[in-house]
């Protein structure tokens, strides 16, 4: 993180790339809180000085700039937004045990789903490795079906009645899941195996706060993947 002292203003800016599973949750969280922000699309192969200066350690997106001060790491940004603009809708539960549980599942997604996603994006040309990535994603989603049952308690989202922290962290991947679904010829979140999660996916995509942020053009996502693979 860079910058010191109090935020000079309330101006919000997000540095991102549109299909990033880490940028998407931040944008939806800002929408949920009703905060307007400037979105700056980065070229990760020609990073702006603003990005490099704002995240000098990792040089990755997302970066949230709040009054010129930088906050890095998507899950930390989500928690910053939730703490600063507390109240409805809250992203994390107020009960400490439920909050710990939400953080646990978000960390699980960042470990198991992210690693499977990396394989599916970057090892596409190695069919065995790619199939292994799909299988690993499937295993993680099976586990998350149980997590959804426990966390949602029959309500529409991991967060209960509304989108919460775990919803945002998993929801960031849906654009890519749609693209991978086109390759494998079925939904990655398979309604036959994980019906609760499949219904959750439909609800998350349909939420107003996710519209225009979660990519729904699978061919555009697949074209972006080809750009990544070419580079
Ligand atoms: N743990 C980070 C991961 C962010 C990340 O990997 N961002 C990718 C884009 S999807 C990036 O900026 N990559 C640029 C690079 O690695 O040089 C977070 O949650 O914010």
Which secondary structure elements does this structure contain, and how are they paired or packed?
Blueprint: E1 12-16, H1 23-32, E2 38-41, H2 49-54, E3 63-66, E4 69-72, H3 74-84, H4 96-122, H5 127-152, H6 165-171, H7 174-184, H8 195-206, H9 218-230
Parallel strand pairs: 1-2
Antiparallel strand pairs: 1-3, 3-4
Helix pairs in contact: 1-3, 1-6, 4-5, 4-6, 7-9
The structure holds glutathione.
Glutathione is lined by residues 17, 20, 22, 44, 59-62, 73-75.
List the total number of helices: 9
Distinct small-molecule ligands in the complex: glutathione
Rg over CA atoms: 17 Å
Note the main sheet: 4 strands, mixed
Detail the poorly predicted runs: none
Function: Is involved in the conjugation of reduced glutathione to a wide number of exogenous and endogenous hydrophobic electrophiles.
Enzyme class: transferase
Organism: Panicum virgatum
InterPro entries: Glutathione-S-Trfase_C-like, Glutathione-S-Trfase_C_sf, Glutathione_S-Trfase, Glutathione_S-Trfase_N, GST_C_Tau, Omega/Tau-like, Thioredoxin-like_sf
Write a concise synopsis of the structure shown.
Belongs to the GST superfamily. Tau family. Helices cover 53% and strands 7% of the residues.
Descriptive overview:
One of its GO terms (molecular function) is glutathione transferase activity. One of its GO terms (biological process) is glutathione metabolic process. Keywords: Cytoplasm, Transferase. Its main location: cytoplasm. This protein has 231 residues and is an alpha+beta fold. It folds into 2 domains: 12-84, Glutaredoxin; 96-230, Glutathione S-transferase Yfyf (Class Pi), Chain A, domain 2 (Up-down Bundle), CATH 1.20.1050. Helix content is 53%, strand content 7%. The chain has a 4-stranded mixed beta sheet with strand order 2-1-3-4, covered by helices on one side. Helix 1 links the parallel strand 1 and strand 2 (38-41). The model has no long low-confidence stretch (mean pLDDT 95). The structure holds glutathione. Glutathione is lined by residues 17, 20, 22, 44, 59-62, 73-75.
């Amino acid at each position: 993180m860079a910058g010191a002292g109090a935020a000079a203003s309330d101006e919000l800016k997000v540095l991102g790339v549109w299909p990033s599973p880490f940028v998407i949750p931040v944008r939806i969280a800002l929408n949920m809180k009703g905060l307007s922000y400037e979105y700056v699309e980065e070229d990760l192969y020609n990073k702006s000085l603003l990005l490099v200066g704002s995240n000098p350690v990792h040089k990755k997106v997302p970066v949230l700039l709040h009054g010129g001060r930088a906050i890095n790491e998507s899950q930390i940004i989500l928690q910053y937004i939730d703490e600063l603009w507390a109240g409805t809708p809250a992203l994390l539960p107020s009960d400490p045990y439920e909050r710990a549980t939400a953080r646990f599942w978000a960390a699980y997604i960042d470990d198991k789903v992210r690693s499977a996603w990396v394989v599916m994006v970057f090892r596409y040309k190695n069919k065995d490795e790619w199939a292994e990535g799909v299988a690993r994603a499937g295993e993680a989603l099976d586990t998350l079906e149980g997590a959804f049952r426990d966390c949602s308690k029959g309500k529409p989202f991991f967060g209960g009645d509304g989108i919460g922290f775990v919803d945002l962290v998993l929801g960031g991947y849906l654009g890519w899941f749609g693209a991978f679904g086109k390759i494998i010829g079925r939904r990655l979140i398979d309604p036959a195996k994980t019906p609760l999660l499949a219904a959750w996916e439909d609800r998350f995509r349909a939420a107003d706060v996710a519209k225009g942020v979660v990519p729904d053009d699978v061919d555009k996502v697949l074209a972006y993947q080809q750009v990544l693979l070419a580079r």
